[in-house]
Amino acid sequence: MPFQKVNAEKLSHSVVKQIELLILRGILRPGERLPSERELSERLGVSRPSLREALGELQTAGLLESRAGSGVFVADVLGSAFSPALVQLFSDHDEAIFDYISFRRDMEGLAAERAARLGSDTDLAVINTVFEKMATAHSKRDATEESHLDADFHLAIIEASHNVVMLHMLRSMYELLRNGVFYNRQVMFRQRTTRDELLEQHRAINDALQARDPDGARAAVEAHLNYVEARLQDKVTADHNEQVAKLRLEHTQAKT
Asked: Is pTM beyond 0.85 here?
């Protein structure tokens, strides 16, 4: 007969699966420190030997890393999304900026639509909380904080879409954005008028999400990224024009 004895699952295996799911769902993030061994074993209700076995398995799998004297951390699993050579190519060529924005428009429009339909009330509360922080930073004219919260706002929408593949893909791309690989975010926040328009665009996105309007949320995200694309194109054009003007000035001065 095709039957086998049922074996009780090892406690360490249950711990592994729980931590794997927390990483997969984006709850535990790269670089985040796990609680101490004593605290974690108490929270999970397992013995320290079982916990150590589980943590060792996760380290072998490359999901966790131990740092001497500091503890156990979630590994930088996002760092392998793009090779250093490809990151350098992104940095060196303007066309990557516009391909990136086009990709975001497609993916984040879909994420906003899903978040409006599938996000929980708590998901929407998180998004609203981040937006309120953006509005506060705007009133303080804190461009640095405002740009960081901008990224957090969009990531909160992606998290609320509850698609783990989209989550990890776009989170890795946002890390490149935060590091200035695609463009300097603060360029977008230098002019008061631009900052006001960006805040209102995020308000429109948030309003549509809170109203659970999938089509409206997607349209608001797409309108926002169309605006970002146009402003960055203006900058590329202005930089090109400045280079031409400098050549013209140099040539004019040489003739005097």
From this structure: no
Classify 119 as helix, strand or coil.
Answer: coil
Q: Could you tell me if 90 and 176 are in contact, meaning their C-beta atoms sit under 8 angstroms apart?
A: yes
Interval 149-195: pLDDT, tens: 998 999 999 999 999 888 888 888 887 777 766 776 666 666 667 88
Contacts of 206 (CB under 8 A, 6+ apart): 127, 128, 131, 153
Residues 6+ apart with CB under 8 A from 19: 28, 54, 58, 63, 64
Residue type, 4: Q
What integer pLDDT is reported at residue 6 of this predicted model? Answer: 39
Torsion of CA 190, 195, 198, 199, to 10 degrees: 140
Alpha-carbon distance of 135 to 141, in angstroms, equals: 10
Segment 84-89 long-range contacts (CB within 8 Å, at least 24 positions apart): 87/176, 87/181
Q: What is the DSSP letter of 72?
A: E
Instruction: For residue 67, give the 3-state DSSP assignment.
Output: strand
DSSP symbols for 157-211: HHHHTT-HHHHHHHHHHHHHHHTTSS--GGGGGSSHHHHHHHHHHHHHHHHHHHT
| Token pair of 128 as six digits | 């609203």
User: How is residue 41 written in tokens?
Assistant: 């074993």
Q: Are 170 and 159 in contact (CB under 8 A)?
A: no
Lowest model confidence (mean pLDDT) among 14-18, 114-118, 177-181, 198-202: 177-181
Q: How far apart are the first and last CA of the chain?
A: 101
Q: Contact, 46 vs 15, CB < 8 A? A: yes
User: DSSP label at 93?
Assistant: -
- CA-CA distance, 143 to 134, in Å (whole number)? 10
